[in-house]
Amino acid sequence: MTNFGHRLYSLLTIAASIIGAAALCSASPATAQDTKRPADAKRGAVIASQGNTATAPACALCHAFDGASDGSGAFPRIAGQSAYYLSQQLRAYGSGVRANAIMVPIARGLSPEDIADVASYYASLETPFPPLADPNPDLVKRGKQLAETGNATKGIPGCDDCHGAEGAGRPPTLPYLAGQYASYTALQLRMWKRGFRRDNPETMVLFAKKLDDQEIAAVAAYYQKLRGTGEVAAWR
Fold it and tell me: Which domains does the chain have, with CATH numbers?
């Protein structure tokens, strides 16, 4: 990582901590308090497959039991994401910091123990990547450049500076992007760009606003081409 990348990552980590603390302070007691026991991935598997019977449906209805979702990109791949990150996102939905018509009521129906358990379950999975259609090679090449070096003219650092080499993530706080569905990644970037997602204002909102639609499509296509092992398809 470049010196700029190191400085940026340090600043973003501090900012993320501040934002996360603010989110938890504003959350309702049911979502803000921490569970007092170790996470139980086996119980999390039951919640994933059946819901918690009272207030939240099964996660598998959208994300599949193996965390790969359905491949359409309408729902993100969550298998193997860190339990910390998954829990953080559920708490953000529950507090209203992150808005989504489907996820907000579901997250609010989960207890702190439910969140810890289901996050632990999905984090434990090593799910194969499904075969997907190959994107335009030129688009992927442009995305690779943005991911690795960014766009200095626009003041955009490389995505890998925060999300790790080849989108491997920086557990536990920053998610992997390698193998994430391009349509989902592009949608989230457009939501940040256009103000529909307001979480991470000092990071993702700031940088997404500087990306044009072609750059968003390019970086999303590139990361979909990567796989969790760090291997890249034959176009490289």
Answer: 3-123 (1.10.760.10), 137-225 (1.10.760.10)
